Amino acid sequence: MVAYKNILYCTDYSEDADLAFIHAVQFAQRYESKLHVLHVLDTIHRYSPYETSEPVEEKDKDWIASPELIEKIRTKVVDRYQPRLEGVSEVDWTVIPGVPFVEILRYARENDIDLIVMGSAGESEQDQTSFLSTVANVSRRAPCHVMAIRNPEKRYTL
């Protein structure tokens, strides 16, 4: 029997990610697992993990992933998801800068994750012409099961 003790939920605030959250919480409740909530601040430059494309406020122009910015984003993530965590006893909240699929894989390995739950199409992947999505890269390289949740109401066309 499969037993998930550490479940990683990855969010980019997309619609698919919000649907994936529901499934991650249900699995965490069912298996009495620790739920890890991870948000990766997507970096502008692949080799410069400190410049992010995610401002906290619209007026922000200098998007350096400082400890202050990371803490503001972490608070935003906690405020968004904590009210919907009924029945989950242990939660770890993490925000880190970097290339999303790389940081997700690193986090999964370092924290003995048994299941990664994420939306099938993130905010940056709504354009169907993108080469490889974060979920594709994670599912091909993950050391554990990966569940990609898509919105069944969306119709994808090529």
Q: Which radius of gyration do the C-alpha atoms yield?
A: 15 Å
The total tally of domains equals: 1
Total of helices = 4
Low-pLDDT ranges: 125-131
Number of strands: 6
- Summarize model confidence as the mean pLDDT: 84
Largest β sheet strand count, sense and barrel closure = 6 strands, mixed
CATH topology category name: Rossmann fold
CATH superfamily: HUPs
The dominant shape is globular
Intertermini distance: 39 Å
Q: Which range best describes the helical content: under 10%, 10-25%, 25-40%, 40-55%, 55-70% or over 70%?
A: 25-40%
Reading off the top of the CATH hierarchy, the class is best stated as: Alpha Beta
Task: Please specify the SSE layout and strand pairing.
Blueprint: E1 6-10, H1 15-31, E2 34-45, E3 48-52, H2 67-81, E4 90-98, H3 100-110, E5 115-119, H4 134-141, E6 145-149
Parallel strand pairs: 1-2, 1-5, 2-4, 5-6
Antiparallel strand pairs: 2-3
Textual characterization of the structure:
The protein has 4 helices and 6 strands; from the N terminus they run βαββαβαβαβ. The chain has 158 residues and is α/β, with parallel strands linked by helices. It has one domain (6-149): 3-Layer(aba) Sandwich (Rossmann fold), CATH 3.40.50.620. Strands 1, 2, 3, 4, 5 and 6 form a 6-stranded mixed beta sheet that branches. Strand 1, helix 1 (15-31) and strand 2 form a beta-alpha-beta unit. Helix 3 runs parallel beside helix 4. The longest helix has 17 residues, at 15-31. The protein is globular and about 45 Å long. The relative contact order is 0.23. The model is unreliable at 125-131 (pLDDT under 50).
